């Protein structure tokens, strides 16, 4: 990789946690459509559940999530009560009781919920859904707000994987993003989690933050690796102040340029490799003993709205304001405004207000993009054959790939496309060639690197 190639291909492209991506959802997919999709779900369909809790005690200036700052608990408690009603409502729309194999709590800060509300919600979920005994139950958490009692409440509720937001351990960067979180604070939470029996631990780190340097990234990786999380995700900060106004608190001139971002990302990758982590896809890393490494080697790695995952369920139901679900027929998204979401649930109907139905062409392109994102390779003939088509379906994409092949970013052998190791940072740019929606999209995306 050199500066010229980076300038040529580091464009704004989707993260491809779905295809088609969320900017293409439309109001033609409403609550009635969603109800029909849920009713059609087959008995044995593996199912995942996602719960969005859009509240935080303080705004981190880098945050791109749908969240709201609260100073008192009542709005959170009211939200939890409505979410419990939503669980009952949606569970009642399923004619079958498919097995729930994964559950993920995101935000915001899901651990802002009181122990009582969390345990009540988990009881409602187990009543309304067929949660299998060995289901993975993962919760995102902010170490700054955790206590030992709260950790023990999570364990009682059945949580068995914790995802900790870390971002960067360097004080000057933390001040610039309004998130002061000393190493010792994070280490204490990790100790509490392991003592409570929650041993599967993920860390989220970031590069491209204000005032951040390669040395900062390396130091953060070194400190993170001392705690031996099973998985580490290293995300690039997406500066979109026109969409998230709090990002205006981060001056443009404090941010690293494209080449510096690339150097930071690669420094993190090299440092993690030195400390025993396998690089997975674009931005995830896992120990050799972790299940994510196992499914990578078996060609079963998946990608969904939470990023890379071992979850093989093709059906995902989202709960809470703004949450996105995926069913065999297509994608749905709940209303983003809290009041609109709550009103729908209180009126006894799903809060879905947009989505998109999938054609076979969509499904084929989704599969191609997912394999490129997960395996860095795809056999176009094999994928096309599953939909009664041939690799000729992608002749124009192969032609568009030729400059990338000439630049050493990708290779092609027959109908098999592979992304080279030097081309890994530009993986999303390769995937974008297969995205027929991208040119007409209204969304604005993050840089490829």
Q: What would you note in describing this structure?
A:
- The structure is a single chain.
- This protein has 449 residues and is an alpha/beta fold.
- The protein folds into 2 domains: 336 residues, tm_1862 like domain (pyruvate-formate lyase- activating enzyme, Alpha-Beta Horseshoe); 82 residues, Arc Repressor Mutant, subunit A.
- 37% of the residues lie in helices and 22% in strands.
- The chain has 15 helices and 19 strands.
- The strands form 5 sheets. A 9-stranded mixed sheet has the order 9-10-8-7-6-5-4-1-13, with helices on both faces. Strands 14-15-16 form a 3-stranded antiparallel sheet, with helices on one face.
- The longest helix is centred in the N-terminal third of the chain and has 20 residues.
- The termini are close together.
- The model has no long low-confidence stretch (mean pLDDT 95).
Straight-line distance between termini: 12 Å
The multimeric state of the shown protein is: single chain
Strand count, sense and closure of the main sheet?
A: 9 strands, mixed
Q: CATH topology of the largest domain, anyone? A: pyruvate-formate lyase- activating enzyme
Query: Overall 3D geometry?
Result: globular
Relative strand content: 15-25%
Residue-averaged pLDDT: 95
Name the structural class. Answer: alpha/beta
Q: Give unreliable regions as ranges.
A: none
- The CATH superfamily of the largest domain is known as tm_1862 like domain
Number of helices: 15
Order of strands in the sheet with most strands = 9-10-8-7-6-5-4-1-13
Helix content: 25-40%
CATH class descriptor of the largest domain = Alpha Beta
- How many structurally independent domains? 2
DSSP strand count? 19
Per CATH, the architecture of the largest domain is Alpha-Beta Horseshoe
């Amino acid at each position: 990789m050199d500066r010229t190639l980076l300038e040529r291909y580091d464009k704004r492209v989707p993260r491809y946690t779905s295809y088609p991506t969320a900017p293409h959802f439309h109001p033609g997919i409403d609550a009635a459509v969603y109800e029909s999709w849920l009713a059609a779900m087959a008995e044995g369909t593996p199912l995942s559940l996602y719960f969005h809790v859009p509240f935080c005690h303080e705004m981190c200036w880098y945050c791109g999530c749908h969240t709201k700052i609260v100073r008192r608990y009542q709005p959170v408690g009211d939200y939890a009560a409505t979410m419990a009603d939503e669980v009952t409502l949606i569970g009642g729309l399923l004619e079958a009781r498919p097995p729930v194999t994964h559950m993920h709590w995101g935000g915001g800060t899901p651990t802002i919920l009181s122990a009582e509300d969390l345990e009540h919600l988990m009881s409602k979920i187990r009543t309304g859904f067929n949660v299998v005994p060995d289901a993975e139950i993962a919760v995102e958490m902010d170490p700054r707000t955790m206590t030992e009692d709260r950790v023990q409440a999570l364990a009682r509720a059945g949580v068995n994987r914790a995802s900790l937001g870390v971002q960067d351990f360097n004080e000057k960067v933390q001040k610039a993003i309004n998130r002061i979180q000393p190493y010792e604070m994070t280490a204490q939470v990790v100790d509490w989690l392991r003592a409570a029996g929650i041993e599967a631990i993920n860390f989220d780190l970031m590069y491209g933050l204000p005032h951040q340097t390669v040395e900062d990234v390396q130091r953060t990786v070194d400190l993170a690796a001392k705690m031996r999380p099973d998985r580490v995700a290293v995300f690039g900060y997406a500066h979109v102040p026109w969409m998230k106004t709090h990002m205006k608190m981060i001056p443009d001139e404090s941010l690293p340029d494209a080449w510096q971002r690339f150097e930071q990302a690669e420094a993190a990758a090299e440092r993690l490799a030195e400390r025993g982590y396998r690089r997975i896809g674009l931005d995830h890393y896992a120990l050799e003993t972790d299940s994510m490494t196992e499914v990578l080697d078996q060609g079963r790695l998946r990608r969904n709205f939470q990023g890379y995952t071992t979850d093989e369920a093709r059906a995902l139901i989202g709960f809470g304001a703004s949450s996105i679900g995926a069913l065999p027929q297509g994608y749905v998204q709940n209303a983003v405004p809290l009041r609109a979401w709550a009103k729908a649930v209180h009126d006894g109907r799903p809060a879905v207000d947009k989505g998109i139905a999938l054609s076979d062409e969509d499904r084929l392109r989704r599969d191609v993009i997912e394999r490129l994102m997960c395996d860095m390779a795809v056999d176009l003939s094999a994928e096309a054959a599953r939909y009664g088509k041939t690799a000729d379906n992608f002749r124009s994409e192969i032609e568009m790939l030729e400059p990338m092949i000439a630049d050493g970013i990708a290779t092609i052998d027959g109908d098999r496309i592979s992304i080279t190791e030097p081309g890994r940072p530009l993986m999303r740019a390769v995937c974008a060639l297969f995205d027929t929606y991208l040119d007409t999209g209204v969304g604005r995306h993050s840089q490829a690197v």
